[in-house]
């Protein structure tokens, strides 16, 4: 099972990373906090102090277009906010 799907790189998350040393990741829906901690420590070589998880439900969205009424659904996902040790950083752009 691949626990970490992708990092969350937004303006808000970047501000939190600089101030509080917390980083966001999209994670597998079935992953628990211990698995997320081990995956982040193994992939980035940092010490994880705490893990907070948030589950987002998918929403129904609809709009009226030229082709008529179109309805769909956004995906449900799970996000983890990981706090790392003081003085450590994670560079998401190093392996692009």
Task: Please tell me about this protein's structure.
With 96 residues, this protein is an alpha+beta fold. Helices cover 23% and strands 42% of the residues. It has helices at 11-20, 33-44, and strands at residues 4-8, 22-27, 48-56, 60-65, 68-73, 77-84. The strands form two sheets. It has a four-stranded antiparallel β-sheet. Strands 4-5 form a two-stranded antiparallel ribbon. It is elongated and about 55 Å long. The mean pLDDT is 92.
Task: Name a few traits of the molecule.
96 residues; Alpha-Beta Plaits; four-stranded antiparallel β-sheet; 2 helices; alpha+beta; two-stranded antiparallel ribbon; single chain; 6 strands; 23% helix
What is the overall silhouette?
elongated
- Integer average pLDDT: 92
For the largest sheet, list the strands in their spatial order. 1-2-6-3
CATH H-tier superfamily: RRM (RNA recognition motif) domain
Estimate the helix proportion, in percent.
10-25%
Query: Looking at CATH, which topology would you report?
Result: Alpha-Beta Plaits
Report the CATH C-level class: Alpha Beta
How many strands, what sense, and barrel or not for the largest sheet? 4 strands, antiparallel
N-to-C order of helices and strands: EHEHEEEE
**Spans of 5+ residues with little confidence (pLDDT < 50)?**
none
Strand content: 35-45%
Number of strands: 6
Head-to-tail CA distance between termini: 23 Å
Radius of gyration: 16 Å
Total count of domains: 1
Going by CATH, the architecture would be 2-Layer Sandwich
How many helices does DSSP assign? 2
Main structural class: alpha+beta
């Amino acid at each position: 099972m691949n626990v970490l799907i992708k990092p969350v790189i937004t303006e808000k998350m970047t501000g939190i990373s600089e101030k509080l040393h917390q980083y966001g990741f999209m994670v597998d829906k079935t992953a628990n906090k211990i698995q997320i901690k081990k995956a982040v420590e193994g992939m980035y070589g940092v010490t994880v102090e705490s893990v907070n998880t948030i589950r987002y439900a998918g929403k129904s969205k609809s709009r009226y277009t030229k082709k008529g009424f179109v309805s769909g659904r956004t995906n449900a996902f799970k996000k983890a906010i990981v706090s790392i040790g003081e003085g450590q950083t994670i560079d998401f752009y190093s392996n692009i």
